[in-house]
Specification:
This protein has about 140 residues and is of the alpha+beta class. About 30% of the residues lie in helices and about 30% in strands. Strands 3-1-2-4-5 form a 5-stranded mixed β-sheet. β4 (about 125-130) and β5 (about 135-140) form a beta hairpin. The model has no long low-confidence stretch (mean pLDDT about 95).
């Protein structure tokens, strides 16, 4: 028999897709070095992705509500942090953070993490997973 008084931990993930363009280019590298490091992703006109982001929270299941977090609240946070600033945007030109940070998917994950922790309850955010393509996935856990 399971102790019904024991605290239970659950993970909740919500998936959201957004489209954005960017150019991988570091101001710390020469044009030639940028071409060598980033290849076709350094195209001066940029390129785009249909990103799929999974936001996962981890926490105690509330005894009264039966939830770790209300999914409606998580959806609103994702709208504010991901969709409004990033969807159908040029990451390098429309998002001030990327004016000085290369817009790799790793850095997009860090950007999302840093902004999600500001709007979620403390210690709830567990993971940001971004599918840049079907074959390229980045996972960031705030480390």
């Amino acid at each position: 028999m399971v102790d019904s008084g024991a605290e239970r931990i659950a993970y909740i993930s919500r998936v959201q897709s957004f489209s954005a363009c960017h150019r991988l280019h570091s101001v710390h590298l020469s044009d030639e070095e940028n071409k060598q490091v980033y290849g076709k992703c350094n195209n001066p006109n940029g390129h785009g992705h249909n990103y799929k982001v999974e936001v996962t929270v981890r926490g105690k299941i509330d005894r009264v509500t039966g939830m770790v977090m209300n999914l409606t609240d998580l959806k609103r946070c994702i709208e504010d942090v991901i969709m409004t600033p990033l969807d159908h945007k040029n990451l390098d030109k429309d998002v001030p953070y990327f004016a000085s940070v290369v817009s790799t998917t790793e850095n997009v994950a860090v950007y999302i993490w840093d902004n999600m922790v500001k709007v979620l309850p403390p210690d709830l955010l567990y993971e940001i997973k971004i599918h840049e393509t079907d074959k390229n996935v980045v996972v960031y856990r705030g480390e």
